[in-house]
């Protein structure tokens, strides 16, 4: 019994005047030798650690509020509060405090603020001996009372004494009776004085006075007094709003009268703080700290009372998900939940934990899934807010629910897909809802907040699920707006599913920018999942179509996506980019931008500068060989010249290094160890063959070069160690595995790295075409055969000695099946 009686939560007031929870524990008052006095100790119930050790100082003013709270200031900016589970425990500790200070436990405040400042005490010596004498509560004394109330606000001691005087004489109720008289007599002057008086009493910041003023019998008259601001020509009609306009909606009848009263009181007090009272200036900030605390603790109590009433909550859920519930009722239920979750933010972490677990147990997520798909905009918006509370509280809980759900339902109705659909279909021209939903999706797919358990990781499970079931929904608008027929014939819109979507419509452009932002986040955080997705869907090519958008922000989003990919310095991505000739749209955008010095110009140049500074050899070679003619005229930055220099230095370095290669390779020439391929390399070989769309080796011949394969791979690894780049022009015969690596392709770029003399001549014809900005499609026909020749020569030829170099010149004749 004593355990629950002494159970408390410890709160401290932070800089924003909000109460921070410091933990739950059990309080005791004992003599502490170190502090030389009786002290309050709170030990945490979880681990027995000390949450609070505070000496009961004879000079500190302690306040007892709402029967279960004790509040005091330890130092100038350090306020503490103990919130007791039971009134009896609060009374017990209060008696101990009063005993130390020599006070009667019946007081609500230990009045030792008088000792707070010696200087003030001596300045005001004549008044310290007795309380402030209040004028009699009569109409003709209102001006005097108003002057008195406003005059004490600057002195903490006099504020304290006025508060006691008001409390002892039941003065507030008398003032409110005078208010009714003044209103009946239409005594404007008296009403203006009453406004000053009541506002001044609120600024005394005393919980005991608040309890009187905010009681059911007084609060409306207090609001009435605050309507008559002398600065206004006409009084405001706050009471009319609170009684007639503001309707108390009970989605399900609340039977507990105390709970109803608390809800009414909290709403009205919040209204006084937010609407009626002026925004406090910097100097008045602390004047209303107790009012903020009053509202805060009321909210905690409301949430706790509702949470404990399980019948009430389960009834709310039942009606929310019941198909028979009409739309108006459902809207009210959702709004109730939104408010409920907002109130829950006042709970301390352990209680908030319990709160959301209760909601999860009752089925909040399946309920949200139904509600988020509804037509009513208000309902969807409130449901989104509730969803955001849940995601912020526990992304893992949401992920777990979605993965379980995937096992028993279609992709279309999965919660995450419902969220993505809402994002895509947001009707707001500024996409306010879509931006909020995008933020929530980002939180859900962020590996940083995924847990790794001993036997399985949430990260791999959830990302597998997301890429299999949801990614296609997210990228659908992007793929629909960048499809082939869209790019070539913009006027034919009916050619794809979403024919209502026009790529250059501002709202669509904003949506595509949001989707790209999410995909860019994936590139940065998801490694192989997104890599497979980009390769399989040829996603970067589709994204770069948006470089042509008339909306520069969208073109920049597309560029940022590519920049993030290149920033990874991953050779798989680099091969994909060079093979697909994907720099072409970027370079076209740079050339189309002309001499304008704008963000697009700077961003494109930064991309190439990054490649130069980081010395990404495969990309440098590709850019110089294919596009240098088009770029050499750009001299206001040294980036492109620098790329050419890097390229030539690398060629020289490789030609020197490769002179010594044959002797090394010769020793390994006939080795046939059956090493297994690394997983990544194997994946690349497989992917490349699938992606080609060409039967490079006729099916019947596929087994033929198998015998030579380990050797080819061995050389592949050798040259990979030699910084993964080769000389593609001066020493074509020495770049067999290099030729294989970069020319296994069907685009213009392939021709440049090919090994045979034939392919070089074709390269000479096709390179200018590609650098003039024409699409790689025009050149792919002329180069596909060449690429096939070059790459396969690379697969089966070994640059070991002079004989083999001679052989290579005649190789197309010797192996007609490969050259055909």
Automatic annotation (TrEMBL):
Q: Where is the composition biased (Low complexity)?
A: 745-786
Q: Tell me one GO molecular function of this protein.
A: protein phosphatase activator activity
Biased composition, class Acidic residues, residue ranges: 680-694, 798-809
User: What do the Gene Ontology cellular component annotations say?
Assistant: nucleoplasm; protein phosphatase 4 complex
Q: Which residues form the Serine/threonine-protein phosphatase 4 regulatory subunit 3-like central domain?
A: 144-649
Q: Where is the PP4R3 EVH1-like domain?
A: 5-101
**InterPro entries in UniProt:** ARM-like (IPR011989), ARM-type_fold (IPR016024), EVH1_PP4R3 (IPR055236), P4R3-like_central_dom (IPR006887), PH-like_dom_sf (IPR011993), PP4R3-like (IPR051137)
Alphabetical GO biological process terms? DNA damage response
Region Disordered, annotated ranges: 680-820
The text of the family note is: Belongs to the SMEK family.
Q: What is this protein called?
A: Protein phosphatase 4 regulatory subunit 3B
Gene that produces this protein = PPP4R3B
């Amino acid at each position: 019994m004593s355990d629950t009686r002494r159970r408390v939560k410890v709160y401290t007031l932070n800089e924003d005047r909000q109460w921070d929870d410091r933990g739950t524990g059990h309080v005791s008052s004992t003599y502490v030798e170190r502090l030389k006095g009786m002290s309050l100790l709170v030990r945490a119930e979880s681990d027995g650690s000390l949450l609070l050790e505070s000496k009961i100082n004879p000079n500190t003013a302690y306040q007892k509020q709402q029967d279960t709270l004790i509040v005091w200031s330890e130092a100038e900016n350090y306020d503490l509060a103990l919130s007791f589970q039971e009134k009896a425990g609060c009374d017990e500790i209060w008696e101990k405090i009063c005993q130390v200070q020599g006070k009667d436990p019946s007081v609500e405040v230990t009045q030792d603020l008088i000792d707070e400042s010696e200087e003030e005490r001596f300045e005001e010596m004549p008044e310290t001996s007795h309380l402030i004498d209040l004028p009699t509560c009569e109409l003709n004394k209102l001006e005097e009372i108003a002057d008195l109330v406003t005059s004490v606000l600057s002195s903490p001691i006099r504020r304290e004494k006025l508060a006691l005087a008001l409390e002892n004489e039941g003065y507030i109720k008398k003032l409110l009776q005078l208010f009714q008289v003044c209103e009946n007599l239409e005594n404007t002057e008296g009403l203006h004085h009453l406004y000053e008086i009541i506002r001044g009493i609120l600024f005394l910041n005393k919980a005991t006075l608040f309890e009187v003023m905010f009681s059911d019998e007084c609060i409306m008259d207090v609001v009435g007094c605050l309507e008559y601001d002398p600065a206004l020509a006409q009084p405001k009609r706050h009471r009319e709003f609170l009684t007639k306009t503001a309707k108390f909606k009970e989605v399900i009848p609340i039977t507990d009268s105390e709970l109803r009263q608390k809800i009414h009181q909290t709403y009205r007090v919040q209204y006084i703080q937010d609407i009626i009272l002026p925004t406090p200036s910097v100097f008045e900030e602390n004047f209303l700290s107790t009012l903020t605390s009053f509202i805060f603790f009321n909210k905690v109590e409301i949430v706790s009372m509702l949470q404990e009433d399980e019948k009430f909550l389960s009834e709310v859920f039942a009606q929310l998900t019941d198909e028979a519930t009409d739309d108006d009722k459902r809207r009210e239920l959702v709004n109730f939940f939104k408010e409920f979750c907002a109130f829950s933010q006042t709970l301390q972490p352990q209680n908030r934990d319990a709160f959301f677990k209760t909601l999860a147990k009752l089925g909040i997520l399946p309920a949200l899934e139904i509600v988020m798909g509804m037509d009513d905009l208000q309902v969807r918006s409130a449901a989104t807010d509730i969803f955001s509370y849940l995601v912020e509280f526990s992304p893992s809980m949401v992920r777990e629910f979605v993965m379980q759900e995937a096992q028993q339902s279609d992709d279309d109705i999965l919660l995450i897909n419902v969220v993505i659909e809402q994002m895509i279909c947001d009707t707001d021209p500024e996409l306010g809802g879509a931006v909020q939903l995008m933020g929530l999706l980002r939180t859900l797919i962020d590996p940083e907040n995924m847990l790794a358990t001993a036997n399985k990781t949430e990260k791999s499970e959830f990302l597998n699920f997301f890429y299999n079931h949801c990614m296609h929904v997210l990228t659908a608008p992007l793929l629909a707006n960048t499809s082939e027929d869209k790019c070539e014939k913009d006027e034919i819109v009916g050619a794809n599913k979403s024919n209502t979507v026009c790529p250059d419509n501002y709202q669509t452009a904003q949506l595509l920018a949001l989707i790209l932002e999410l995909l860019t986040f994936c590139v940065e955080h998801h490694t192989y999942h997104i890599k497979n997705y980009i390769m399989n869907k040829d996603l970067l090519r589709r994204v770069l179509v948006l470089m042509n958008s008339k909306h520069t922000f969208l073109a920049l989003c597309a560029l940022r996506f590519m920049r993030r990919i290149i920033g990874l310095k991953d050779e798989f991505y680099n091969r994909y980019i060079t093979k697909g000739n994907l720099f072409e749209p970027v370079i076209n955008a740079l050339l189309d931008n002309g001499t304008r010095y704008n963000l697009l110009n700077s961003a494109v140049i930064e991309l190439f500068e990054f490649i130069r500074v980081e010395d990404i050899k495969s990309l440098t070679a590709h850019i110089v060989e294919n596009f240098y003619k088009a770029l050499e005229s750009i001299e206001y930055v040294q980036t492109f010249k620098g790329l050419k220099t890097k390229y030539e230095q690398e060629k020289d370095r490789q030609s020197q290094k490769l002179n010594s290669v044959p002797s090394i390779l010769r020793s390994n020439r006939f080795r046939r160890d059956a090493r297994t391929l690394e997983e990544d390399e194997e994946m690349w070989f497989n992917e490349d063959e699938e992606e080609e769309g060409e039967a490079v080796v006729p099916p019947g011949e596929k087994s033929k070069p198998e015998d030579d394969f380990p050797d080819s791979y061995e050389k592949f690894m050798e040259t990979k160690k030699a910084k993964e780049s080769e000389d593609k022009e001066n020493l074509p015969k020495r770049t067999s595995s290099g030729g294989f690596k970069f020319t296994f392709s069907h685009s213009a770029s392939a021709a440049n790295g090919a090994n045979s003399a034939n392919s070089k001549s074709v390269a000479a014809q096709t390179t200018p075409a590609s650098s003039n900005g024409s699409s790689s499609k025009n050149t792919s026909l002329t180069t596909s055969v060449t690429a096939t020749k070059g790459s396969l020569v690379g697969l089966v030829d070994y640059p070991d000695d002079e004989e083999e170099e001679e052989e290579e010149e005649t190789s197309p004749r010797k192996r007609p099946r490969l050259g055909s």
